[in-house]
Design a protein that fits this description.
Layout (H helix, E strand, L loop, with lengths): L2 H27 L1 H6 L8 H8 L3 H13 L3 E4 L2 E4 L1 H6 L8 H20 L18 H23 L2 H8 L1 E6 L5 H9 L3 E7 L2 H13 L6 E5 L11 E7 L9 H11 E12 L11 H15 L7 H9 L5 E6 L4 E7 L6
Parallel strand pairs: 3-4, 3-6, 4-5, 6-7
Antiparallel strand pairs: 1-2, 7-9, 8-9
Helix pairs in contact: 1-6, 3-4, 6-7, 6-12
The protein binds S-adenosylmethionine.
The site of S-adenosylmethionine has 19 residues, from helix 9 and strand 4.
């Protein structure tokens, strides 16, 4: 590439970052939703600010920037959502909201990585909760990113789910986030009950409210607490962990012992993780490029991504033979293992 081409590439990336940052402000403040509820009628700055409960000065500057990046159309001083703005509404089907949340969360983590790199300090999970506007969007971002993919690809592609459906029983989700996984399983499996555990109270509040809203509150229970510290439960039929194992990998012997002990004989563990690779050249594929960026952010939190064979070996250490199911061209892995015994 010529220096001019390099410069143009950087400018395009810079504008992309700006577009996502403006998107995040509109998501987080409710400005996109306030406009969307008007169904194309449009709002001037004062009415938009009042509808979203946002200061009029900030609303004016945001609306100008959102117009500049094509989220809004303007007729004089009246703003309406352009298709891009409509797609950024968190309530839109297939919402683009996760891109905006990831961009701002990524910027926060990159800033923390830059500040911590000299000392090597790794502050842990709490870094996620440092920005009060980001934390409430963490669960919805993950749900919007993976919920539909789970239903369309993972559930039909992993035979364990048909077995759980046929048997019913109880599922335990360790590090459940906003509970989307248990809520989606319970909605399609009427005989399933579930318990979700997560360390962030905000996630548990969101999970409980969503389960009640979706009519699942009598079958699902969400508890704030540490994966290591929760009280022993009656043996469960399924232990699930989605994007949570790498958060507790530093204590893997304890965690895998806990998973095995939580299962009834014959019960299943289903662990879904991004599939790290030691093949550096593969990191240039766009999905793995994002994974490589996130692995730097994970480092700040005290974590790192795992290769599927490491998860299989950890199951083998507790006498649970495991099978790996690959998705998204190998970028996502679901590892399934059974506690020996029982009738299967
Ligand atoms: C990347 S999120 C995944 C959330 C959810 N499973 C999903 O797929 O959307 C990882 C979750 O694990 C939780 N977590 C990490 N370590 C934990 C621990 N020791 N005890 C309880 N929850 C923990 C975090 O609070 C966070 O919600």
């Amino acid at each position: 590439m010529t220096p001019q081409e390099l410069r143009q590439q950087m400018m395009a990336w810079g504008q992309g970052a700006m577009a996502l940052q403006i998107g995040f402000v509109g998501v987080s403040t409710g400005l996109f939703e306030a406009l969307g509820e008007r169904k194309g009628e449009g709002l001037d700055v004062a009415a938009l600010a009042a509808a979203a409960g946002v200061d009029a000065g900030y609303t004016r500057r945001w609306a100008d920037a959102a117009y500049a990046f094509g989220y809004l159309e303007a007729d004089g001083d009246t703003f309406t959502l352009a298709p891009l703005g409509e797609a950024m509404r968190p309530s839109a089907p297939g919402t683009l909201m996760p891109f905006a949340v990831q961009a701002v969360l990524g910027a926060h983590m990159a800033e923390r990585a830059a500040g911590l790199a000299r000392t090597g300090e790794r502050p842990g999970e709490r870094v996620l909760g440092e920005r009060e506007t980001i934390l409430p969007w963490f669960g919805p971002m993950l749900e919007a990113s993976f919920g539909t993919f789970f239903e369309r690809e993972v559930v039909p592609g992993v035979p364990a789910f048909a077995e759980v459906d046929a048997r019913g029983g109880t599922a335990l989700d360790l590090g459940c986030g906003n509970g989307w996984y248990l809520r989606r399983l319970a909605a399609r499996m009427p005989h399933l009950r579930g318990i979700g555990l997560d360390g962030f109270g905000e996630n548990i509040r969101q999970a409980t409210a969503a389960a009640d809203r979706e009519g699942l509150g009598d079958r699902l229970q969400f508890i704030e607490g540490d994966i290591y510290a929760h009280a022993p439960l009656a043996p469960v039929d399924l232990v699930a962990m989605n994007r949570a194992l790498h958060h507790v990998w530093d204590q893997k012997a304890r965690v895998f012992g806990l998973i095995r002990d939580a299962l009834r004989p014959g019960g299943l563990a289903v662990i879904w993780e991004p599939a790290w690779t030691d093949d550096r050249a593969a990191l240039r594929d766009p999905p793995r490029r994002a994974m490589a960026f996130q692995n730097l952010n994970e480092h700040v939190q005290g974590n790192h991504f795992l290769r599927p064979d490491e998860i299989v070996a950890a199951f083998a250490a507790v006498d649970m033979p495991a099978t790996v199911y690959s998705f998204a061209n190998g970028a996502e892995a679901v590892v399934v293992a059974r506690r020996p015994g029982g009738e299967g």
